Amino acid sequence: MVEQVDSGTTAPVRAGVARRAGRRVVRWARWGDATGDARGGSPWTRGRVLAVLAVLTAGLLVFHRAVPNSVGHMGSLLEAFLPWLGVVVVVLFGLALLRRSALSLVALLLPVAAWTYLFGELFLPGAEPGPRDLVVVQHNVSDENADPAGTARALAGAEPDLIALEELVPRALPVYEQTLAPDYPYHAVRGTVGLWSKHPLTDARPLDIKPHGIAEGWNRGLRTTVRTPHGEIAAYVAHLPSVRVRASGLASSWRDESAGLLGGAIAAEKRDRVVLLGDLNGTADDRGLAPLTSRMNVAERGFAFSFPAGFPLARIDQVMARSATVGHIRALPATGSDHLPVAARITLD
Q1: Residue 331's closest CA among 142, 176, 154?
Q2: pTM: predicted TM-score of the whole model, two decimal places
Q3: Which end of the chain, N or C, is less packed with Cβ atoms under 10 Å?
Q4: pLDDT tens, 103-131?
């Protein structure tokens, strides 16, 4: 009797233990363990493709200058959207979590570190305003802007010392002049670019940055002297030729040639302090602007993506300086243009 009772009571117990143990094994296998899962992988062997993609992304971030420009200006195309590789990192991170791949997660530390090194500093707060600061606004107002008066009022509302405008067309120019005159009594316009200032301007002249192959009458450069309370500075306003993304790559030859001409003019500038404001049709990372970025300081803080206005993907409107520091740069609210205005604070050294 005892043996029958023992066997009758222990069998269900053993079966229950087995079922619970089985559930634990299935659950553990579902999440994966160090020895493998039902598909023969483990957290350290699954996700090899994701890990390779993570390493490649890190390589593009760190060695973007090594991507050749000889075919379709692919190097410049990559550099125009370089910060957006951060989105690739986020996507890879999500896939690594779904795949439960420890290998991929560890590999993702490489592009995270590379992106943080390149762009993390831009998120830091800017320095406090100082007594030797100038506030500047740069804006391509668009030759199709239906509200130039509203655009002018919006720019003046930021209370900058200098306002640089591009794509000034004859029908809109008097509106900008009249609207900005009360707060900006000094201005200079050459061709389709202009500078409005709270401080006196002298020696205004056109700047020849026209590349070969563009018709006569193309005038998108201006050089003038600004008499600020902290001394005179040379101010340049420029609108470099547009670039196009095509199936064959990035068409930027005219832009690159114009950037070289502008860089040569700045290199020959006799004044130490130089400020450059303009629609340069390129980002600060784009090697096509190297004739400028190699000679001038770019913004230390802020992304300020400015184009296109509806969904900004890149900052092609730039503020650069020599013998001065460009602090925080920010995008201003949209106007009637396809660009967003950008405002920056410049500290004169």
Answers
A1: 154
A2: 0.85
A3: N
A4: 999 999 999 999 999 999 999 887 777 87
